Amino acid sequence: MSTPIIEARDVSLSFGSVRALRDVSLTIGPGEITALVGDNGAGKSTLVRCFSGVHRPQSGTVLLDDRPVSFSSPEAARSQGIETVHQNLALVEDLTVWQNLFLNRELTRFGMLDRRRMRRDAARMVSELAVNVPEVTSRVRRLSGGQRQAVSICRAAGFSSRLVIMDEPTAALGVQETKKVEELIVRLRDEGHAVLLISHNFAQVMRLSQQVWVMRAGQCVAGRRTEQTTGEEIVGLITGAVAA
Prior knowledge:
By secondary structure, the chain is α/β, with parallel strands linked by helices. It is 32% helix and 27% strand.
């Protein structure tokens, strides 16, 4: 069995009297789409923030390539190849596609912004992922929801990322745009990225993922290989109607 890209071992985190995570243990394998499911407030986003450098666990361990890590910031997590596509996308509408791709990662030459190189590299990143996005000089405010999602995914995948975390990537999209984004997610997996997918769409989870982890009330209550479970069982595990 291959070494997980990232692993949580007995990770716990509280905010005052609220225990957001309780001894959570799970693994994310290389070259797979791993789904993380559960009701609102189950702890999914909090766990992801522990992986992406926003929070530090108060107990337990996060391992990257079987080595304990403790990220002090999202930048520290990104430096180790962990990228996150947030639900709000974190794009600046008045900037162009290429400016958003290189936001906080600007390239310089002789102390000046190397705009030509960034535009060229942005066009290459977009074309390599076959993203249906207009010219990289287009402003983000002109893009559709699916195109904005594609830009955000492209930004995450374009900087040698090993793990791409996606928080509800198609929640606000229509049927056709959802299909295009799902194709992009599968392509990321096929190119060797590990993908952690948070989704309330159980049909999407069953369609895309190879592994499903179920969270409830701050705990990871079950893990299933997708091919060995059903959407009905996953719903039962989330609600507690089915024993783990």
